[in-house]
Specification:
- This protein is of the alpha/beta class.
- The protein folds into 2 domains: about 190 residues, 2-enoyl-CoA Hydratase, Chain A, domain 1 (Alpha-Beta Complex); about 35 residues.
- The protein contains 9 helices and 9 strands.
- The strands form 2 sheets. The chain has a 6-stranded mixed sheet with strand order 1-2-3-4-6-9, sandwiched between helices. Strands 5-7-8 form a 3-stranded mixed sheet.
- It is globular and about 55 Å long.
């Protein structure tokens, strides 16, 4: 059935490839593997390239629970993936070669950088099975706004990659899988030219400042700038 193939660190880069064709669905076990990697990356890891084999990126996850307890435990694992993607010290880059749906879109959106091919489409089809996607609605309005979040989850309409980029779900769109690999190669090289510590601080500040009003964020930035200035030159 395939699984999650995780490479060794090579020049600061790890590749994690989901290989479960045809739909590339995440299982709870694979979610645990990804969280472990994100929370405890090997030494020297700076950038994580997250991609999938086959024609689609990820059409969601396998639904295993049936009792209230099972469903709650399953939901907590899914939430742990979102949190781990946001708190990891690695820079995360999603290489989206094909369609993403539901939880798959959430993985893309939680990465720091996300590049997709022009033919990829993005959707939240939970409404078609009579489910309001609570996990999606916990983060989607912050990215696309409440009005767009309602429409996308209420209808399941699939977004083309260019529209997904306009709404903030993607960093860039390229024409072909070959272009995707070259574009991500270039972006990773640019990231590797920077300081992993500074990148980790940037990610932490984005999370810390997001819930604050502008004045509170500016006040909080003072101490952050002082600490960052004193740490210049550290590796």
């Amino acid at each position: 059935m395939g699984g999650l193939e995780i490479s060794a660190v090579a020049d600061g880069v790890i590749v994690a490839e989901l290989d479960r064709p045809p739909a590339n669905l995440w299982t709870i076990e694979l979610c645990h593997e990804l969280v472990a990697l994100l929370d405890h990356p090997p030494g020297g890891a700076h950038v994580l390239r997250l991609r999938s084999g086959g024609e689609v990126f990820c059409l969601g996850r396998e639904r295993a629970g049936s009792t209230p307890g099972d469903l709650q435990a399953e939901a907590r694992v899914l939430v742990s993936v979102q949190r781990a993607l946001r708190r990891t010290r690695m820079v995360t880059v999603a290489e989206v070669q094909g369609d993403a749906a539901g939880f798959g879109v959430g993985v893309v959106a939680a990465c720091d950088v996300a590049v997709a091919t022009a033919g990829a489409r993005f959707s939240f089809p939970e409404v078609t099975i009579g489910l309001a996607p609570a996990l999606v609605l916990a983060w989607l309005p912050r990215v696309v706004g409440e009005r767009q979040a309602f429409w996308l989850t209420a209808t399941g309409e699939a977004l083309p990659a260019t529209r997904a980029m306009e709404l903030g779900l993607l960093s860039s769109v390229v024409e072909s899988p070959d272009d995707l690999r070259r574009d991500v190669d270039d972006r990773v090289a640019m990231l590797r030219a920077g300081d992993p510590r500074v990148h980790a601080e940037i990610r932490d500040m984005l999370r810390a400042f997001a819930p604050l009003g502008e004045d509170d964020a500016l006040d909080a930035s003072v101490d952050r700038l002082v600490v960052g200035s004193l740490r210049r030159g550290e590796r």
